Amino acid sequence: MKASQLLEYSEPIYVHPSTTIADVARLMLDMKADVVLVKSGSKVLGIVTEHDIVRALATGLSPESEVSRIMSTNLVVAKKDEPLTSVVNKMLESNIRHIPIVTDKGDIIGVLNIKDVVRAFAAFSAWP
After folding, report:
1. β-strand 108-113 against 98-102: which pairing, if any?
2. Please, what's the b/e burial string for 26-41 (b: 16 or more CB within 10 A of its CB; e: otherwise)?
3. Strand pairing partners for 48?
4. For 7, which DSSP code?
5. Which one-letter DSSP state was computed for residue 90?
6. d(Cα 84, Cα 63) in Å, to the nearest integer?
7. How far apart are CA 68 and CA 19, in angstroms?
8. Per-residue pLDDT reduced to its tens digit, 11-67
9. In whole angstroms, what is the distance from residue 100 CA to residue 57 CA?
10. Which domains does the chain have, with CATH numbers?
């Protein structure tokens, strides 16, 4: 199975680096998303997850702070035709639960999350 086969093919959600943490949290709630990508112009600068928001607020960062203060910038990505086992290994090695899936040109087509992976493995398992 390839990484792209698990994507739901909805467009990734992008925010500007100056967007507030509170606005990102509201957007994630409204969109039922657990991850957004941070983009300026055509360049993707980072990724923000629910976990990042919780950690920021728990450590006293203001909800009105810019999301650029909490985004992860060293993106680990997987190619769309990469085998799922390779993608899972990248996620485990990097201790991440979300991984952007990219085309051969490097364009992000979606973000795979650990729930997608678990669903795929469950679908291929023999349930009693």
Report:
1. antiparallel
2. eebeeeebbbbbbbee
3. 36
4. -
5. H
6. 36
7. 8
8. 899 999 999 999 999 999 999 999 999 999 999 999 999 999 999 999 999 999 999
9. 25
10. 3-124 (3.10.580.10)
State how far the Cα of 1 lies from the Cα of 78, in Å rounded to an integer: 13
> 115 and 122 in contact (C-beta within 8 Å)?
no
Q: Say how far apart CA 37 and CA 53 lie, in whole Å.
A: 13
CB 3 within 8 A of CB 87: yes
Length of the chain: 128
DSSP, collapsed to helix, strand or coil, labels residue 102 as strand
- The pair of structure tokens assigned to 42 is 């055509």
Residue 96's φ and ψ, nearest 5 degrees, are -125, 155
